[in-house]
Amino acid sequence: MNWGKRADSLGAQIVLFSNNQSTESIGYYNFLTPAPHNSQNQAENNGFGSVNTSNNINGALTQSAPIYQPQKEYTVSYFYRFESITGIYPIDLSDLDKSRTGYLEGIKAKVISKKSAAFGEILEDDIILKINDIVVRDVSHFVDISNYLKKETVKFEILRKGQKMTKEISIT
After folding, report:
1. In terms of pTM, does the model score above 0.70?
2. What domains, with CATH codes, occur in the chain?
3. Mean pLDDT for the chain overall
């Protein structure tokens, strides 16, 4: 794919590529092995007569062995022509972010304008879950929510290094 043409078609001024650390996906291979037969298990005397515990059925044990599948994750982020009233320029959560955090919705703060009220409150790589108690689904939803913010105090629910917290910024 020609990333430059894609960026132009989207009106992106900045295209950010990242090459994340290699992750390992673990799968499991299941297989059956015959269960060991013990002649003592064929018949037991429990005080009430003989009991056949094997029922003459060949048993099998199910075993699992891990299969490691190394994976490389590449992320391409497009920053649209968008003047953020909050000063936050986010990207969508990657599959790796979703897997690590357990959250399927939200956005990751990637750039915080130094001249904004968010600078110092919201940090790069914070995951924004809610704005004024509205769940943020993705970047386009963030833009929609931001378009309706007025000069007021805005409450953010974020996830920072696994800790959920609330931050407030005043838009002037």
Report:
1. no
2. 84-170 (2.30.42.10)
3. 75
